[in-house]
Amino acid sequence: MIEVKNLTKHYGHTVAVKDVSFTVNQGEVLGFLGPNGAGKTTTMKIITCFMPATFGTVSVAGFDVAENSLEVRKRIGYLPENTPLYTDIMVEDYLKFISEIRKIPKFQVADRIKSIIDTCGLRSVLKKDIGELSKGFKQRVGLAQAMIHDPDILVLDEPTSGLDPKQIIEIRQLIKNLAKKKTIILSTHILPEVSATCDRVIIINDGVLAASGTTEELQEKAEGDSIVYTTITADSKKVEDSLKSLDFVRSFNLVSKLTSTKNRYKITVKKDQQDVEELIFKIAVDKGWVLSELYSESLSLEDIFIKLTTTGQ
Amino acid sequence: MSVIFAILKREFKSYFVSPVPYVLITIFLIVSNWLFFNTYFMAKEASMRVYIGQMPWIFLFFIPAVTMRVWSEEKKLGTMELLVTLPVKDFELVIGKFLACFFFLAVCLALTLTVPFTIAYTGAPDWGPIIGGYLGVLFMGTALIALGLFISSLTENQIVAFILSLLVAFVFLIIGENLVLYAIPDFFVPIFEYLGFGSHFMSITRGVIDSRDLVYYASFILFFLFLNVKSVESRKW
Ligand SMILES: Nc1ncnc2c1ncn2[C@@H]1O[C@H](COP(=O)(O)OP(=O)(O)OP(=O)(O)O)[C@@H](O)[C@H]1O
Ligand SMILES: [Mg+2]
Question: Lowest CB count within 10 Å: A160, A245, A287, A300, which one?
Fold first, then answer.
């Protein structure tokens, strides 16, 4: 549905996006991640025909954004970053204005507006000027204008920023419901949101594609390391000596000193190593250490994100 | 067409939701009426020559004040991004906004019709120059709108747009004036005279509608609308 090929964007001398390629299939929700200034918004602006790429091509529903921009724009609903909206117009009039520009047939306009008002929870502010709305309600108006023509493709730049927790859950639910029929790209800094709503994730860092795949695939890419936290009362030098030398231990760190001999350690363990807890427990028993904590966890999306965006790969 | 109309409608409505346009209209009416009646009752001349003659100088401030926010505000608010990613052609945006300003001007001019009616009530005016005068004012105002809109599209700062439009409009007003024409080499005189507003404005207000003047205004307006479309497209450069 959306095909981005070797996309590069220069702003004067700064290179915002470098040779990024990815595709989004019909009916897929793609999460777009990356630290501030990574190039997410830039990529979205190119997909939505706001500005052209310096190099590379983007096609949406088979139409090239440079050559057939009007066809592309008809099919996309776009929520720009920071939700820019007119301030001096009533919510209802604004939605009517967008419906007219989107050429929604006159007899459907009332129904479309009614249904979008319900989905976005706008009934109470219909007669208010947009300028008077709180940030969260502005965000809802932004979402409403993006969806009013029932587009096949939604491009949402940080759609849940500024919403209250209840509304965030509602919007996520809405995105999930829409996902069955629509193709969606959304950028976000809230990582649990990605696990909650997205089929696939793309991480870009410094304009370069750092990783792409499902959340599970990314976990594997991040070498599938799992982490074991353990608190042991024993001489820290001895603990380090005997645990660090184990062949499945990738790294060994002292996290915090609780008392002079009681310490908390973080151990990163190579993937595919089974029963790590048992092995550590046995060593502790053999050496006569007091073990007061022992648990392992797999890398969260946060860990993967940090890992992929700080080391570059 | 429906798209242009939708833009025109929103734009035109937006003029009347804030107090600014009401203030503008009021100032426009008070200043122009004051300047007129101030001389009218002394001169006892049943014509609008004076009134029409001062209009370019009022427009110099009035039109830039109307056009300054039209694009600048879209840029500043960031709504430009939403607007140009809607399925709308750039020229439709430009025409829609241009027409909205044009109708605003038309409303303002309609509100000054009290003046000719007052004259008709107190004397027996010659209607030819009055109608010509209104046409001349409308043409010139429309030309200044095209100019002001283009300049507004260059900056996100309304004040900058206002001052720049005023300066450029001022240049077009004076380059055809005798004071300037005396000062420049002979070779340039006909060019300056043609480019300046003065000669075209004067001949229409005399009640003479010459196709050369219409061509002048039409090309002036189209030229700046064209530049405006280019400047909206310039995000793509
Ligand atoms: N109009 C512009 N002119 C010059 N440089 C720009 C412009 N817009 C963005 N950039 C630069 O391009 C890079 C990518 O910016 P972009 O807005 O795409 O990042 P982002 O991933 O959306 O970040 P965030 O998470 O903060 O929204 C940044 O280095 C930014 O400084
Ligand atoms: Mg961004």
Answer: A245
Q: Mapping DSSP to helix (H, G, I), strand (E, B) and coil, where does residue A119 land?
A: helix
pLDDT means per 10 residues, chain B with 237 residues, are 90 84 85 77 70 86 92 93 93 96 93 84 80 89 96 94 95 81 78 80 79 89 96 82
How far is B57 from A239, CA to CA, in rounded Å? 89
Residue A29 bridge partners (DSSP): A184
Chain B residues with beta carbon closer than 8 angstroms to that of A102: 86-87
Fold of A2-213: Rossmann fold (3.40.50)
**Class of residue A27 by CB neighbours under 10 A (exposed 0-12, middle 13-18, buried 19+):** middle
Q: Which CATH architecture has domain A222-310?
A: 2-Layer Sandwich (3.30)
Domain boundaries, chain A: 2-213, 222-310
- Is the full-model pTM beyond 0.90? no
Number of CB atoms found within 10 A of residue B224's CB: 22
Q: Quick check: A142 and A157 in contact, CB under 8 A? A: no
In the sheet where A63-64 sits, what is the strand order?
A14-24, A2-11, A55-60, A63-64
Residue A18 exposure: Cα atoms within 13 Å on the Cβ side: 12
B85 and A48 within 8 Å at the Cβ level: the answer is yes
Is there a contact between B137 and B109 (Cβ–Cβ < 8 Å)? yes
